[in-house]
């Protein structure tokens, strides 16, 4: 009788685990993330790639876009 509650609870726990893994894997399958990563790696400076390796994609991408915005602002001033 002690195994019956566990046997009934196990399928529910497995279902919850599968649904939570779907939420984790969903953004990883997104094609836009792959395209952003490819464009970042094509145009990134060595220090931005180092940030990517040590801190992850989000901080490195933020640093990359900050540099791009600054370059655009400086180019607009020189005109």
Q: Summarize the main sheet.
A: none
In the predicted model, the low-confidence regions spanning at least 5 consecutive residues are none
Percent in strands = under 5%
Question: How far apart lie the N and C ends?
Answer: 82 Å
Q: Round the Cα radius of gyration to an integer and report it.
A: 22 Å
Shape: rod-shaped
Number of strands: 0
Structural class: mainly alpha
With helices defined by DSSP (H or I, 4 residues minimum), what is the helix count? 4
Describe this structure in words.
By secondary structure, the chain is mainly alpha-helical. It has a domain at 44-79. The protein is 85% helix and 0% strand. The protein has 4 helices and no strands. The protein has helices at residues 3-25, 31-43, 46-55, 57-77. Helix 3 (46-55) runs antiparallel to helix 4 (57-77). The mean pLDDT is 81.
Characterize this entry briefly.
This protein is mainly alpha-helical and 79 residues long. It has helices at 3-25, 31-43, 46-55, 57-77.
Index terms:
79 residues, mainly alpha, rod-shaped
What is the topological layout?
Blueprint: H1 3-25, H2 31-43, H3 46-55, H4 57-77
Helix pairs in contact: 3-4
